[in-house]
Each structure stands twice: as C-alpha cells, then as structure tokens.
Design a protein that fits this description.
D-Amino Acid Oxidase, Chain A, domain 2; 2 domains; 10 helices; 31% helix; binds flavin-adenine dinucleotide
Length: 372
C-alpha cells in the first residue's frame, strides 16, 4: 500500500511522482511499456507558451507559470541525478512569409505586448540578424527571447533517476487492466503483473486516459492526435533559434539534431510514420530555412498527443469517486506543462483544495457522465 499510485510513466506521471516523492510521500508508478515511451519521448521538447497560446487566458497563464518553474525544476533534477537535460533558452521566431500571414501575427503580438509579455515585432531583416539561416522570403514576425527547448528524452531519464533516488517504486512492463473499487472508493488498480493498492490513484495515461476514466463510468473526451516528426543532423546548419511557420517548425537541439515537425492526424491509436506525413513535414519546413535542403536525414517518428474536447488539460478528481484523480489531456504542451502540473496536482493531493485547479477540473465534462 502506497500513498499515491500514478498510472502512466510519461512526463506527466513521472513529473508528479517526482514532486510527490520530494514532498515525502510514498509513490508507485506503473507503466505498460518503457518509461516515457509514448508521446513524451516523441515530443520536440519546445517550451513555448507564447507561441502556443495566442489568447490571454488560463492556458497562457498556466504555460507561463510552467516556463517560470522550469529553471528550478531543471536545476534540482540535475543536482539530484547529475543528468544534463540540455535546457536552452534559444528564443523563438514566429515567421510570416507573406503580408497576409503577417496580419494575424501582428494582432497576436499586440495582444501579448499589451499584456506585458516579452515579445518583439521584427522585420524580415531584423529576424535574420537573430537567425541568419532564416529565408530571405521572411517578411515579418514575432521574436520571443524567453522561450526555448529541452531534451525531453534526457528529462525523462532524469525524472526516472530522481524518482528512484527519492525512493519511489517504478513498475514497468505492467498493463493496468481495471480499477480496484470498494464502494465509491478507488483503492488501486489490477494489472497484468498483479494488484497495486494505494490511498489515491492518479490516472496519467496520456492518450489512454479516456479509456481508464470510462471504466469509472465518467466520460472525458480524450482522443489521440498523432504527431509525425523527423530529425536531421545540424552538421553544417548552425541554427540558433526555434523557427515556427504556418506549415511547420524547426527546433535546433543541443545534441546535434534539428527536429522538424509536425503533423496533426486523426489516426486513432496508430503510431506509425506515413510517407505522406513525412512529406508534409519536410515540405512544411524547407521554405523557412533553405539550408535544410542539403541536411543529412536522421530519423522520423510519431507519437500520440492526448487531446481533450476543449484543448485544456484535465487536472483534479474524477467526479463521483473518492481516491482517484486525473492529470492528463496536455495535447501539444505536456513537456512545457509538466512542472506546473506536478506542482498544482501535488498541492491538490496534499490539501484537497480544488479551487486552484479551476478551470481544468474534469468535472467541466460532467454533462457527459455515464451511469456507474
Ligand atoms: C510529435 C509531437 C511533438 C510534440 N512536441 C511538444 C513540444 O514541443 N512541447 C511540449 O510541451 N509538448 C509537445 N508534445 C506533447 C507532449 O508530448 C504530450 O503532451 C505529453 O508527452 C503528454 O504526456 P503524458 O505523460 O500525459 O502522456 P504519455 O507520454 O503518452 O504517457 C502516458 C503513459 O501511460 C502509459 N499507459 C497507457 N495506458 C496504460 C495502461 N493501461 N497501463 C499502464 N500504462 C499505461 C503509456 O504507455 C504512456 O507511457 C508533442 C507531442 C508529439 C506527439
């Protein structure tokens, strides 16, 4: 019997397990495959709330809070584990190639600037001073110097190592098959390798969270959205900045890779790379950095983003049950949102106070509750 059982060993489950362990709780994490082997290792690792959330509101606030938490989060993880997670505040350029594309970007810039965020409006020439490899075709865009990226695979390794160091029990290769229930209390889960019991179970199973919550008769709209990405070698292509265009993004990492992305496909739980997906990714990025035409191709891969019906995460208790919560539905931004999710969920699990989780509470989907 453990205080907390996390179902799912992606960035969200491992991040929360780390935070709870740091606070002195006993924690078990159960993962069906390899640690971080699904969406969390497929991600490009960008930390880009200003790019991702164009409207002021709860998502931008959550994203900015997480970006703010990142330096400490990384520093502590590196101190505990000695693993360099390659965090980089590279800055990010959102680029318009035509005057027409520049119009909505300028609107976004004005909104964010008026709210006090660190963004700059730049001409094509100014952007090329920031990133000399940017195409001559770039007309204008937004530069956000505070955004950047991380090596999400190294971050996952660090979280696993830190959880172990702090005494968490990590069970991989074990598939959760149902919830263990006593009355209206969830007391743990049944798995293919035996029962696991806990005072509180947190469903952090990414694109599979909806299936698990369904077992409790509560329907949350979580669906998988496949993202296909590719990488090329940065050798001879010394990019400095993340570049985002209307048809793709280019993320130069510190490990010698440039990650190019990404599709958004409704393909159910299929996770393979398709030729048309790969060709869309490559065609989408090359107009922004012509030097990519001669880049050495490395790899292509895909992952399943956990998307909710309103594109906001699900954080908090499963309505109608004791002893069970959800931390999921982070869609395109689970890497960015991992520290803030760990913090707000751990605060809730310690205090029982739900208000700080508004408007992310799963109960917002109560209309879709099915009978238990
Ligand atoms: C191509 C792509 C690019 C992305 N780029 C970025 C980015 O640049 N920045 C960013 O912030 N985010 C990005 N994301 C989004 C980010 O990857 C996700 O939001 C995040 O990884 C979700 O984390 P998770 O832990 O909820 O899900 P997952 O990583 O999918 O983890 C859930 C885990 O639960 C396990 N599980 C499921 N069912 C069971 C079961 N029955 N029993 C036991 N275990 C189970 C799974 O095996 C899995 O490991 C990207 C995603 C993709 C696909």
């Amino acid at each position: 019997m453990t205080d907390f059982l996390l179902v799912g060993g992606g960035i969200i489950g491992l991040g929360l397990a780390y935070e709870l362990s740091r606070r002195g709780m006993t924690v078990t994490v159960v993962e069906q495959g390899e640690w971080g082997g699904q969406a969390s290792s497929a991600a490009a690792g960008m930390l880009a709330p200003l790019k991702e959330f164009s409207q002021p509101g709860p998502m931008l606030e959550l994203g900015m809070k997480s970006l703010e938490l990142y330096p400490d989060w990384v520093e502590q993880l590196e101190a505990i584990t000695g693993i360099d997670v390659q965090a980089c505040k590279s800055g990010l350029l959102t680029v318009a190639l035509t005057e027409e594309e520049a119009i909505p970007l300028q609107e976004k810039y004005k909104r964010q600037k008026a709210s006090g965020y660190a963004v700059q409006w730049m001409t094509g020439q100014e952007m090329r001073r920031v990133e000399p490899l940017l195409t001559e075709e770039a007309k204008a865009g937004i530069y956000s110097p505070e955004e950047g990226h991380i090596n999400n695979r190294m971050l996952l390794n660090a979280l696993v190592a830190a959880c172990r160091r702090l005494g968490a029990t990590l069970v991989s290769g074990s598939v959760v098959t149902k919830m263990a229930i006593e009355g209206s209390q969830v007391v743990g889960v049944e798995t293919t390798t035996g029962p696991l019991r806990a005072a509180h179970t947190v469903i952090a199973s990414g694109a599979w969270a909806g299936i698990m919550v369904d077992w409790l008769g509560f329907s949350v709209p979580v669906r998988p959205v496949r993202g296909q990405v590719a990488s090329v070698s940065s050798s001879g292509i010394p990019l400095r900045t993340v570049i985002f265009g209307t048809s793709g993004y280019i993320t130069p990492k510190l490990d010698g890779k440039i990650v190019l992305g990404a599709t958004e496909d409704d393909a159910g739980f299929q996770r393979h790379v398709t030729l048309s997906g790969l060709s869309r990714v490559l065609d989408g990025v090359m107009p922004y950095v012509p030097a990519l035409h001669s880049a050495a191709f490395q790899q292509a891969w895909a992952g399943l983003r956990p998307a909710t019906a309103d594109s906001m995460p699900l954080l908090g208790p499963v309505p109608g049950w004791q002893g069970v919560s959800i931390a999921g539905g982070h869609f395109r931004n689970g890497i960015l949102l991992s520290p803030v999710t760990a913090k707000v969920m751990a605060d809730y699990l310690e205090s029982g106070r739900e208000e700080p989780l508004q408007p992310f509470l799963p109960s917002r989907f109560l209309g879709s509750t099915m009978s238990k």
